[in-house]
Amino acid sequence: MSYFENxxxxxxxxxxxxxxxxxxxxxxxxxxxxxxxxxxxxxxxxYWHSFSANGSDPFGSGxxxxxxxxxxxxxxxxxxxxxxxxxxxxxxVDYFAFHxxxxxxxxxxxxxxxxxxxxxVALIKDKMQATGKKLLWNTANMFTNPRxxxxxxxxxxxxxxxxxxxxxxxxxxxxxxxxxxNYVFWGGREGYETLLNTDxxxxxxxxxxxxxxAVDYAKEIGYTGQFLIEPKPxxxxxxxxxxxxxxxxxxxxxxxxxxxxxxxxEANHATLAGHTFEHELRVARINGVLGSIDANQGDLLLGWDxxxxxxxxxxxxxxxxxILLNEGGIGSGGVxxxxxxxxxxxxxxxxxxxxxxxxDSFARGLQVAAKMIEDRVFDNIxxxxxxxxxxxxxADIVSGKANFxxxxxxxxxxxxxxxxxxxxxxxxxxxxxxxLINS
Amino acid sequence: MSYFENxxxxxxxxxxxxxxxxxxxxxxxxxxxxxxxxxxxxxxxxYWHSFSANGSDPFGSGxxxxxxxxxxxxxxxxxxxxxxxxxxxxxxVDYFAFHxxxxxxxxxxxxxxxxxxxxxVALIKDKMQATGKKLLWNTANMFTNPRxxxxxxxxxxxxxxxxxxxxxxxxxxxxxxxxxxNYVFWGGREGYETLLNTDxxxxxxxxxxxxxxAVDYAKEIGYTGQFLIEPKPxxxxxxxxxxxxxxxxxxxxxxxxxxxxxxxxEANHATLAGHTFEHELRVARINGVLGSIDANQGDLLLGWDxxxxxxxxxxxxxxxxxILLNEGGIGSGGVxxxxxxxxxxxxxxxxxxxxxxxxDSFARGLQVAAKMIEDRVFDNIxxxxxxxxxxxxxADIVSGKANFxxxxxxxxxxxxxxxxxxxxxxxxxxxxxxxLINS
Amino acid sequence: MSYFENxxxxxxxxxxxxxxxxxxxxxxxxxxxxxxxxxxxxxxxxYWHSFSANGSDPFGSGxxxxxxxxxxxxxxxxxxxxxxxxxxxxxxVDYFAFHxxxxxxxxxxxxxxxxxxxxxVALIKDKMQATGKKLLWNTANMFTNPRxxxxxxxxxxxxxxxxxxxxxxxxxxxxxxxxxxNYVFWGGREGYETLLNTDxxxxxxxxxxxxxxAVDYAKEIGYTGQFLIEPKPxxxxxxxxxxxxxxxxxxxxxxxxxxxxxxxxEANHATLAGHTFEHELRVARINGVLGSIDANQGDLLLGWDxxxxxxxxxxxxxxxxxILLNEGGIGSGGVxxxxxxxxxxxxxxxxxxxxxxxxDSFARGLQVAAKMIEDRVFDNIxxxxxxxxxxxxxADIVSGKANFxxxxxxxxxxxxxxxxxxxxxxxxxxxxxxxLINS
Amino acid sequence: MSYFENxxxxxxxxxxxxxxxxxxxxxxxxxxxxxxxxxxxxxxxxYWHSFSANGSDPFGSGxxxxxxxxxxxxxxxxxxxxxxxxxxxxxxVDYFAFHxxxxxxxxxxxxxxxxxxxxxVALIKDKMQATGKKLLWNTANMFTNPRxxxxxxxxxxxxxxxxxxxxxxxxxxxxxxxxxxNYVFWGGREGYETLLNTDxxxxxxxxxxxxxxAVDYAKEIGYTGQFLIEPKPxxxxxxxxxxxxxxxxxxxxxxxxxxxxxxxxEANHATLAGHTFEHELRVARINGVLGSIDANQGDLLLGWDxxxxxxxxxxxxxxxxxILLNEGGIGSGGVxxxxxxxxxxxxxxxxxxxxxxxxDSFARGLQVAAKMIEDRVFDNIxxxxxxxxxxxxxADIVSGKANFxxxxxxxxxxxxxxxxxxxxxxxxxxxxxxxLINS
Lengths: 439, 439, 439, 439
Fold this sequence. Notes:
4 copies of one chain form a homotetramer. In chain A, α6 (about 160-180) runs parallel beside α7 and α11 (about 315-325) crosses α12. The longest helix of chain A is centred in the last third of the chain and has 27 residues, at about 350-375. Chain A is an alpha/beta fold and about 450 residues long. The first copy, chain A, has helices spanning about 35-40, 45-50, 75-90, 100-105, 110-130, 160-180, 200-220, 245-255, 265-270, 275-285, 315-325, 350-375, 375-385, 390-400, 405-415, 425-439, and strands spanning about 10, 20-25, 30, 35, 45, 95-100, 135-140, 180-185, 190, 225-230, 240, 260-265, 290-295, 335. Chain A has an 8-stranded parallel beta barrel with strand order 5-6-7-8-10-12-13-14, surrounded by 4 helices. The interface between A and B is large, with 99 and 99 residues.
């Protein structure tokens, strides 16, 4: 049966098409800067939003109309697998991503839960082989079940820590089994509700211990996918330990975990932390840890994680700019739509419309960013602005030859001659607008 | 002459005194947990807010009525020194803190500027020797002058970098001269207005180079005060590089600067970064870098740095709790009032009232925090909550004996027996309220 | 059976009691400013948070351990009624408040739903008569069921509008039946997700039509309880129509509804709108529409409605100050705990601890506010500050005698003599702290 | 002399021009929906940002390089007039706007101040007649001078109220003299720092008295320009009385001022109040009070009024959409650039670049909005969504025929048949993106 009835595979029809079920900008085979759009993007569908969620929010029940809801238990789990591969086909998307609990229900014991999981993983593996679709990343849901009320790796309850370890061990086994290209740690409830009852030092030490165990186990079983951490500043906890890219880097450095991890950065998490998405990407890029992205957008006038499908072309353009400049581009990562249709967009076709909107927005961002790179728009700006560090006293500073005494001597000579140049922000923004429209 | 006419030295009169010019809680010689209040606090007055500022804001001119405004140039600078030592006496405060440009005007060349500075530093040194007052920290203002429009150590202009180096070199000379117990780096304009014209990698590398030069120069001249960095997330720049404690730790680790720096944490900067003040203090404490505090408070419904005098007893209590638990307490740091009277509180006596308000609020915070420590309020909570990590599987996790396989084996046995305990947040908050009132 | 096993009725034991199951400040029979604390407060328990909620959040399942969860359907509804009256007894609270869907489940038709409701209302009426407990207010839940996905009175679907009308009609019948002292309209999903598909004018006109129908129907059936509107700025909608007190006043005035409505103000909604709680109360007070309060508090570093139990004594003090100054105090309204225990406080006893925390915090607020009123703390400040409007040109302004020409003539004479006085904010805040500790 | 040396008048060169000193989208004579772009826009330059400001911020001195800074006092004032008319010519902009204190310095008395003002007004009048340039609006600066520390019309000092009255009287005389098409009241310091020392009721009553006096005086002198109020929620005061459009409407209604005032809405003020710009415009439009706009944009990750030049095409498109749908379009109002070049954009040419950026962004917004209106994009959406209110029970609701009893009867029949339709937000956003690129 079909879960997205009467919807044909979406094709590129060009920017003026009035067919809502077509791509206006995403042309998978179009080559840009030496790679196809498909290769640049490595789009992925998020299982949780598109197959497990129902549109509920803290004030209301689910609204989503989904044909698979006629089933329950393992049958429901199987139906969702079918729906997932159907949507991958419709959207011509190569990758998907899931939490363990998205794909299979919990049983009454861990044994039973693992058995359900194994069964669905086997089914997914078959589907992958049959279709060529791939797993961008998997992860373990260690936040929904009440046992994780105080966290998983940062819980105050050692039994829960052990349970979480068992869960991730299994998830790594499945990552290997399915050839998952990455394995993601998202904070879930790793954080605190209040410092008043929290041993912050112990909890962070334990988190590091947990991650080292994961690294060790992956080595042991020969799983070679990339480990990723996904920063988020708040929600569900009042404070999430992986607050942002810089905080996560600080943690990884302190605990000697930096060689093993990259970051999976999400737009909405960036803005909740008070940063632009491009800031987080830039921080990751210059530290060599830009691993993958969770593509969505927040509403900056709202203070929670709205996980909207990304349609802001400014944001997608600057995100793609960072990815294009990253060594190896998005690498083994991808553009995963960690985005949910609005509760008011409850029909199955909205899931298709929403992905088209997101894919086209990123495709347009790629076009614009690539054109600006080809035209050396920002390179020219930087070359001019930082020219003083290429020679003379500036070169001495960069090379390490200068010190406070040589610099003071220089400054005493030159203090009356200092001339700055305008940063030209308004002109630059107008230029970006031109590229946005004209590219 | 007197700049705070008819105001006698403020004395402790107890919590029910109706004399506005008395301390209600700050009793300098009262011993708490083995030290006098004076020793715990090491209060400092901020030169910039209390002597150099005039109450202007982006929408209006200065309102402050200050007797020293009858002078100009170096005479004004000297009058302010007198006013500072008068206020230190009135408030019975031992420390003060300043930027170079607070205490002396700029000349037409760096040479002339340095000459003015030297003259005022000599005057201050005399005053210090005569009164026993001490310098908590000094720093260099590298943000007011237009030359720093694009930053100082992170400018795009090598000439400006050199100038900044010369300025800090001089400031370190003065730190040594005056026995300053710390030297502070506050970000000023070290940040960016937009990523669109910013070479983030180069700017951060240069910042690290600058700080290493400072470390080297301090060694060279034998200056042994503590180096401090003061995080702030935004303002004046859209993004400030020393965003918060964790970001600063990340930077210090990456560039091998961690051994040389501690943090000077400010309440209002914490909340602008989305954190509580106690969070920032805790992060610093568990990383061994809690150096000093800038005591003030923000208005969480406003989005800029309001630098209000601290009066929220919840915040001062939890701040003092972290300081009391810090190894060595506040150490060579202190409680510096980086706070300004409201523009509407423009009379000289308001400066006195405001400091009394702040000192009493911190004194009360100390009393309450100390009582909670004596009664082991939080210790008892933590002992119970984290008991499971003291023995059995929890002890194995902490000691490093456990791994994913042993933990899975344990979890498979115990997954049905997991029992969590309530975090009791509401009861804990009611308890804090009781201590606040009853201590 | 008991749902709060082994918990005796909570008694006042005074501020130094170490019994967590006692009131430290709330002494129901203590007379303050001519009324007992009980009369001032009119505390109410919110049915939804304490009996219908389960501790779930967008990232996790319910954690609450509740003895009534052994039941289902109507039996569950009946058990909750028992639990509610048990908790009212334990806490010695006189009032409760509910939405229709809190107390009874929905049936498969509106008829069946109403039948369930009628049955539970009859049970509640019996309990009320037997115990003397009273209904502070009731309301209709028009946001949980998917039919309200686009709003109720502001839906785009006339069938939904009709359904909502039927629901409120029934709720008003029940309000009359139970002698509910107020009837509340909380916005639910009356707002918009996006302006891009919203006819704002029609939706607001329809909301006004709906409220007029409610007024008419109440008259028709002789229901004389006070109508209340509860402002909230955002969540669940991106924009809620009753954004804050001023917006709601604007709406009521435009549609000639002001004579029939007062406001039910919530602390957390105030801060989400960018206001302090006391601001919203003050706006309501000076406009004669301060009707009732939903007592809770938000976390100003988080951007969603956390509905925490109120423990901030600054906020409860200033709230009680406004209520004490309101003509008739809280009137037919009350202090309703629209607050939920944290998801991490999942044991039944936490519900008791949390209400004690809230009741004591408001009781302490009452004590402090009353003492400041008795001592004329703020009256004295205002008398001095605004003295210039009591005579001379100021009196002419207030009485309407002055105009631009007379004022210009006055100003031309006096422009050089204008003298302002300090607002003394820091001193005032220190004074509030003293009252907080000493009252 | 020229203040913008070597800059020719900016011409439209089309969207692919690489000449930074050209318009890419603003083609003044292009007709769109029956009016020229020039007529739609009525662009204005803000005197304060472009001629009086110097790029200072709370952390630094002015950076702006301006040729007129060689002058002082009245000579400076005259030079700025020349500069203003030069920039109006360069940008081919027809309107400007000013505060009284922007155009002339204060003297030592009000008399002297008025004399300076009169002299400059006469000069401006001559220039206007010579060039055909027009005054969009003027206003009185009642916030910069220290006398306004506690507000102007809402001060606690009657002498200040009188002074403010005299100032506005003069400003209205000048409005008449110069044929100013509007007169604006912006809140300045009309608000409060703290409720603890504020008589909110008296202050708002006085504000209403002040505005009535202004209305009366305008009638008396026959000034017929439109009165505008400009909402802003916070800054410089903690709370500004004209918080947002709805709050201002509430105030105008309460005090019978609604017939005399419209709103001047600013993008950055909207977002500081937690609203989108288009929300504020829509609220004004459906209440018939959309008067004029202050065109700029804020940074939603910063909490203060950044007053950036508007370049976000989403915002300009939706703003122009509201203006196009407003009866009479922008009417006697205009698109006034209440925007400042960044402190880092300190060269004169940046002022030109910035205005080009803003004008092109609004021109593009106009093109896109007009195309969507021509294609009935949103009309079609609304027609479908709200169809149920056009007939049957929906028509009865709108016409006033329905009541709770007839609606209940209907609902009891139809409760099981309710069908909602998706709001299609993602598809709508994708459509907007298409129009943005393709128009």
